[in-house]
Please model this.
Amino acid sequence: MRKNIGKALLIGALGCLVLSACSTAYAATGTSGEKNTSSEATQEDAAEADSKNASAQEALDLLKDLLAGGGIGTGAGEKSSAGSIMMQTAPQEPRTVTVSAQGTAKAVPDKAEITFGVTTQSKTPDAAQKENAEKIDKVIAHLKERGIEEKSIRTSSYNLYPEYDYSNNTQKIIGYQVRTSLTVSDQEIDDAGDIVSECIGLGINDVENFRFYASSYDEAYEDALRAAVAAAGAKAAVLAECTGDTLGPVLSLSEGYQNTSYRYAKSNYAMAEEAAADAGGFGMAVMPGEASITAQVTVTYQLQ
Model:
């Protein structure tokens, strides 16, 4: 295919050369004839015309030979008699194989983030908010007494809702509900259960979420990357073997999506105030288990 394209380009170039040479020769011959008619031609003009005619004939013969299937020099130092036009074969692109793979490493979570809240109801919004604020203040004060820093305690949500009575085909406000959520972060796994149990006794009646994460995440992710690259090499070797090839050097390597949110477990449940009061004073076991950290890569190898 490439040889045919190159040959076509060469034929086009030689055709242009023949036309140019013939046009020049014709001009020279015509001029010489005019001068001979007027008895002003010289021997130098005649010799120049003969030379241009010979060049045109030589280029025409070369084009005829090529169209008839004649060979033309393609070596590094070979040139055609019509000039320095040479045919060179374009370099072939390397054959490659591209694979994607995933690696996994394990990490034991050692930190916890807890989100819990206080929900209160009353006939008026002021009364509901006052009761809610009193309980939240007690919980925050207790957390600080435990040695938890203020930067690790934040109010994650605050909502005030009217409560309706829809009986007798009417909509009537019968009270108000206030809900405040707190998020406590950067806690040791061993302390998480005690924190929840103690705060339940102080008025917490809604536990939303436990989030476990590992402080050794970066190290585990690096191990997962190594495993992913090794898995990619194994897959590529099998594919190369199927085609009778062997793997050459890596031509490209890219990292895939990395999930940095890392959520190990989530628990959603609500407790009535009576149950919360009964639970106060009892410890709560928190079992984070083992987390799986994954990494993804895409690798392109050259085939040999």
Summary: The chain has a mean pLDDT of 77. The first strand starts at residue 96 and ends at 107. The chain has six helices and eight strands. The beta strands are 96-107, 111-122, 153-165, 172-188, 206-213, 247-255, 269-270, 291-303.
